[in-house]
Amino acid sequence: MIALSVNLNKIALIRNSRDTTIPDIPEHAQRCIDAGANGITVHPRPDQRHIRADDCRDLAAMLSVEFNMEGNPFAAARASDRPGVSDYPGFMDLVRELKPTQCTLVPDGDGQLTSDHGFDLNTQATALEPILAELRALGVRSSLFMDPVPEQMAIAAAIGADRIELYTETFAAAWMTQNDVSAVYEGFRVTAEAALTAGLGVNAGHDLNLQNLVLFRDLPGLAEVSIGHALTVDALRIGLDPAVRRYQEVLGNA
Questions:
Q1: Is pTM beyond 0.85 here?
Q2: 28 catalytic per annotation
Q3: Within 13 A of 66's CA, how many CA atoms are on the CB side?
Q4: Would you place residue 109 in the very low, low, confident or very high pLDDT band (cuts 50, 70, 90)?
Q5: Confidence label for 116 from pLDDT (cuts 50, 70 and 90)
Q6: Catalytic residue of the set 28, 50, 165, 206
Q7: pLDDT of residue 110
Q8: Catalytic hit among 28, 50, 70, 224
């Protein structure tokens, strides 16, 4: 089974457009779970542009499914500039506090609209290794956000990662234009095979949707997909509960 983890960042973004608690994050998480989601993903950034530190705390207290926290492990604490919003404690401090099921490390910064590249382990492995060791000591499964570069999979395993999450933007873009889809997918397939050979679990995420998942779901060893933006858009069209169920159908989990 390929697990579906629903990313709630865009739900939080709608809430943050007003001084309100609507839409309620835990309520929407529970609706996703009731509709069949296998996990909930959040990506709390230091500027708290969408999911906030307190949202993560609220979710950790109520979730009955896998909790996946994504973020830059080097993101430091930052004071909040919005009344009533708690300070950002630093990503790793938040992970230490909440001990999510899975922690997906992502090399992003404030200047990025969204995550747009994976780690380059040729230059970043040494800095990541002690963080991965700490996650293991905390009992938190680790995942590294990675581009489809097969030769980096053995490095990810060597420094202690449990899984990798493949950054799937290039596949989604190829699917949208129907340009070189097979060749792009092959790059992901070879990378997934390399990850499995190295003993890593394989996750994937970024612009996966109901259409392109029809092919991507066949990726060797695919354990989990994290989907937020596309699922939120589909929820506006057909409703949140039906959208979650439709993704599970496409993944073969109906």
A1: yes
A2: no
A3: 24
A4: low
A5: low
A6: 206
A7: 65
A8: 70
Nearest by Cα to 118 from 66, 212, 211, 188: 188
43 annotated active-site? yes
Compute the average pLDDT of residues 213-241: 98
Mean pLDDT of the chain: 95
Average pLDDT over residues 85-90: 90
Per-residue burial over 148-161, b if 16 or more Cβ lie within 10 Å, else e, is bbbebbbbbbebbb
If you search the block for the tokens 């994290």, which residue do you land on? 226
Joined together, the tokens standing for residue 97 give: 């506090």
pLDDT for the residue numbered 108: 82
- Angle, vertex CA 11, rays to CA 8 and CA 12, nearest 5: 90
Query: Where would I find the beta strands (DSSP E) of the chain?
Result: 3-7, 39-42, 66-71, 102-105, 141-146, 163-167, 201-205, 222-227
CA angle 146, 147, 151 (to 5 degrees): 90
Q: Distance of CA 138 to CAs 18, 30, 133, 149, 253, Å?
A: 36, 26, 9, 29, 31
Is 165 an active-site residue? Answer: no
* Residue 3 predicted with pLDDT over 90: yes
Is the model more confident about 76 or about 174? 174
Q: All domains of the chain, ordered by start, with CATH?
A: 3-250 (3.20.20.70)
Question: Using CA atoms, how far apart are residues 99 and 103, in angstroms rounded to an integer?
Answer: 9
Looking at the DSSP bridge assignments, the partners of residue 41 are 7, 68
